[in-house]
Design brief:
heterodimer; A: mainly beta; B: mainly beta; four-stranded antiparallel β-sheet
Chain lengths: ~110, ~110
């Protein structure tokens, strides 16, 4: 596709359930980021995939959060045993490698835990 | 680790007013600096960037100058329009992946 695609766009889940959020980056982009956007909290970095290097997981808030990137393309963010505080918009971005390259963002997945 | 601090919002201005949104950073080395914008109902998009000291990024009438001596990258526009109403994020890439400030919401009223 022409841009970064995220699915689903909205997800309502019950507390304690697991959820999977998907990101399709722009073709050829070797860098992929996940962020969480909560009201009043800005953009919280979660995880960064850079080519074939080990991902930077330093932003994951707990071991309930994990992410993988298969074949250097599609990425899945998994949240296990969801809690109400996990409710937020989860944003994915992709870019070419390099310190001055533009990151292109998807529209996000709005997660609501009830 | 590297971090970005930007002024708290919201900021409300009248059309044609001068805009400044302050951004300072903490980083080792020489980061690249960015301003991203999120218009209502849209995804984040790059507004402008600067990759070395004294560089000036500009786009859509907005400007920001990379000031190493003050570790700042303040966003300015001489005459804002209603269509500039959005949330503005300062960001950097240094020794860490792309790191954002908390965002500043700007509302411009006619």
């Amino acid at each position: 596709g022409a841009g970064v695609s995220q699915s689903p766009s909205n997800k309502v889940t019950e507390k304690g359930k697991d959820v999977e959020l998907r990101c399709d980056p722009i073709s050829g982009h070797t860098a992929l980021y996940w962020y969480r956007q909560s009201l009043g909290q800005g953009l919280e970095f979660l995880i960064y995939f850079q080519g074939n290097s080990a991902p930077d997981k330093s932003g994951l808030p707990s071991d309930r959060f994990s992410a993988e990137r298969t074949g250097g393309s599609v990425s899945t963010l998994t949240i296990q045993r969801t809690q109400q505080e996990d409710s937020a918009v989860y944003l994915c971005a992709s870019s070419l490698l390099g310190p001055d390259t533009e990151a292109f963002f998807g529209q996000g997945t709005r997660l609501t835990v009830v | 680790g590297d971090s970005v601090t930007q002024m708290e919002g919201p900021v409300t201005l009248s059309e044609e007013a001068f805009l400044t949104i302050n951004c300072t950073y903490t980083a080792t080395g020489y980061p690249s600096l960015f301003w991203y914008v999120q218009y209502p109902g849209e995804g984040l998009q790059l507004l402008l960037k600067a990759t070395k000291a004294d560089d000036k990024g500009s786009n859509k009438g907005f400007e920001a100058t990379y000031r190493k001596e003050t570790t700042s990258f303040h966003l300015e526009k001489g005459s804002v329009q209603v269509s500039d109403s959005a949330v503005y994020f300062c960001a950097l890439i240094g020794n860490t992946p792309l790191v954002f400030g908390k965002g500043t919401r700007l509302s411009v009223i006619a």
